User: Which sequence fits this backbone?
């Protein structure tokens, strides 16, 4: 049976133009769709724009234009950008599309008829940026945690969705479907939300306050809340409820989102579906933020990074490669021009592009531009290529693109080493046949690497395959029987370097073009780690901090805390208790017996009622954390200088 894959991105607000953050999720969806197509799966990829609501209405009013005019203009910018990024969705949906409006009305009526929408009065703290009510508990110092502004108090009569009714069902569904929300940290975050009672969701706005929305079909004095409207796009996109095959797509739905919109997708959406009698989606995969100089790249925070100027300098394939390789889905990543250039130079120019140049040169110098005969028995590269082809579907299942790319590059690097070890340019004098076989093996490994990379870099890999006389059309990522398909005698073509190196001294001149006016003057070199920027201290000041090696004797979770672990540690001459915020990164069992590094002369503090007599050291990167340990077996209590 043909497998199906249905992938979606968030639909983007039309309050600002596309930037690297929104481009990332869309390129990720496009890359996944291309991998699935290459595997022969029936694939549907949906993206689009989210156009209703308070925020859009207010921006349009400030501009003195109708919200539809604003929506048309910005939506078009997204639609036009995607082909430049080689992004080709099967549908570009807009929440102002007539079929979407009908589907929202249909779902509202269904949930209303089922008795899960009621009319009531509510007063609460409302953040305009998020377009939602906040509870006091969710605010940070009285401010919206995302927009850092004080919410307004609003009291009005509205329609409410009985979300609370589905709390238990949702908790069970998440518990019994471990890959429903992933990676695990976000699954845990949603389970965390569910530890407190769920409130019902206000799903309307009175037309006295807002008219830019889909009218509530059973009360014309109200329009639909923008999130209730927007989430339903995922159903409209595949032709719900009338198309004959929406259900087969829906059963495989993979929603990709950034961590900023976890709650609407992890809580509102599954409960809305349940109330409408529609099965839940298959997966919600949550990625972290691209940070630019440690600030989230986004329009509201004000450091937008436009994709087009980057494309002009680096090319679409290189940008896609960097974005897919340098973010581990689930963790934050840092966007810097220096990191992009270094990836481009090392992986693409030195390893991948250079392999093509080398083999092409060999084939033209010694074999008249034709693919030589391969050996009777394929060697180690064939095994490595077969293993790679086996791994891709599994890694794809878990959306670990950085791993897929790294494994492909391992094959490329192994092929470069294979050429060096066998030196066909020398071998050709004594045994042209053997030299030809070595070159054939390298060409074949390169061909397979290029096919495997084609979803990430469609244009350059197509060009590479064309030079090998192997157009990509009709290829399947087939783990069996790939090796050896390159026909001896095929005419190859020469060409310029596939990925020219970018000289680092060219960068300062390129920067203004890349970054635009808003963020000029940013250093090209990677920012030094935090501690290098910190205030200088003398050796004497540093030596006041007592650091010692300690062995973990026991570890357990601190009650009512997701983050804290309580450890009993051995310091050689004494044992102590310390409390550490590492529960999201280490299980208690995994710590027992390990040697860690502890600050021992810190004033004791109480955390969640537990005394902590010291502090362990750990490195943090993005959202992740790694314990500092010692390199050799070191006795407990050994001091650190
Ligand atoms: O939230 N790093 O739209 P939005 C990584 N309309 N991804 C980023 C990012 C960053 N710095 N900045 C943005 C909305 N994104 C709603 C969605 S869906 C039914 C409605 C990406 O325009 C990421 O995917 O604010 C994030 O979730 C999304 O853009 C937010 O886009």
Assistant:
């Amino acid at each position: 049976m043909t497998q199906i894959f249905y992938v979606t991105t968030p639909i983007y607000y039309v309050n600002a133009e596309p930037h690297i953050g929104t481009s990332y999720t869309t390129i990720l969806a496009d890359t996944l769709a291309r991998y699935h197509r290459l595997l022969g799966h029936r694939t549907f990829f949906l993206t689009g724009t989210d156009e209703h609501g308070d925020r859009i209405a207010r921006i349009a009013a400030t501009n003195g234009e109708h919200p539809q005019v604003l929506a048309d203009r910005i939506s078009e910018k997204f639609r036009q950008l995607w082909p430049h990024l080689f992004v080709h969705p099967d549908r570009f949906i807009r929440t102002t599309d007539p079929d979407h409006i009908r589907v929202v009305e249909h779902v509202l009526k269904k949930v209303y008829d089922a008795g899960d929408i009621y009319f009531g009065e509510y007063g609460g703290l409302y953040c305009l940026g998020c377009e939602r009510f906040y509870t006091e508990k969710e605010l940070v110092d009285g401010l919206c945690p995302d927009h850092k502004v004080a919410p307004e108090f609003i009291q009005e009569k509205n329609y409410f969705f009985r979300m609370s009714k589905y709390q238990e069902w949702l908790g069970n569904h998440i518990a019994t479907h471990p890959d429903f929300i992933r990676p695990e940290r976000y699954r845990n975050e949603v389970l965390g939300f569910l530890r407190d009672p769920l409130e019902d969701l206000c799903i309307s706005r009175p037309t006295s306050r807002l008219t830019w929305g889909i009218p509530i079909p059973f009360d014309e004095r109200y329009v639909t809340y923008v999130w209730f409207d927007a989430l339903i796009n995922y159903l409209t996109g595949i032709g719900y409820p009338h198309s004959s095959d929406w259900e087969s797509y829906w059963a495989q739905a993979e929603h990709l989102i950034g961590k900023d919109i976890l709650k609407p997708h992890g809580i509102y959406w599954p409960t809305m579906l349940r109330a409408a009698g529609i099965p839940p989606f298959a997966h919600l995969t949550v990625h972290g933020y691209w940070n630019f100089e440690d600030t989230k790249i986004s329009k509201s925070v004000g450091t937008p990074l436009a994709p087009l100027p980057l494309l002009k300098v680096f090319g679409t394939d290189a940008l896609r490669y960097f974005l897919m390789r340098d973010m581990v889905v689930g963790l934050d990543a840092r966007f810097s021009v220096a990191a992009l250039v270094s990836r481009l130079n090392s992986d693409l120019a030195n390893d991948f592009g250079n392999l093509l140049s080398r083999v092409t040169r060999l084939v033209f110098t010694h074999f008249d531009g034709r693919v030589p005969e391969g050996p009777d028995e394929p060697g180690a590269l064939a095994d490595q290529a077969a293993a790679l082809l086996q791994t891709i579907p599994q890694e794809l299942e878990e959306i670990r693109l950085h791993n897929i790319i790294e494994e492909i590059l391992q094959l490329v690097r192994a092929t470069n080493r294979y050429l060096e070890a066998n030196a066909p340019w020398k071998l050709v004098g004594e045994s042209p046949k053997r030299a030809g076989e070595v070159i054939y093996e390298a060409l074949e490994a390169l061909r397979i690497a290029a096919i495997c990379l084609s979803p990430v870099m469609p244009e350059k890999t197509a060009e590479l395959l064309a030079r090998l006389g192997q157009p990509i059309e009709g290829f399947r990522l087939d783990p069996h029987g790939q090796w050896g398909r390159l026909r001896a005698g095929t005419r190859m073509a020469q060409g310029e370097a596939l990925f020219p190196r970018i000289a680092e001294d060219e960068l300062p001149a390129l920067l203004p073009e890349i970054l635009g006016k808003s963020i000029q003057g940013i250093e090209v070199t990677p920012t030094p780690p935090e501690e290098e920027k910190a205030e200088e201290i003398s050796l004497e000041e540093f030596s006041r901090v007592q650091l010692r090696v300690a062995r973990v004797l026991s570890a357990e979770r601190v009650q009512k805390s997701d983050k804290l672990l309580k450890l009993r540690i051995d310091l050689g001459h004494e044992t102590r208790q310390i409390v550490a915020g590492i529960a999201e990164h280490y299980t208690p069992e995994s710590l027992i017996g390990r040697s860690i590094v502890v600050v021992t002369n810190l004033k004791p503090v109480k955390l969640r009622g537990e005394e902590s007599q010291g502090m362990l050291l750990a490195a943090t990167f993005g959202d992740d954390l790694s314990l500092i340990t010692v390199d050799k077996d070191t006795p407990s209590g050994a001091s650190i200088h």
In short: Residues 517-533 have pLDDT under 50 and may be disordered.
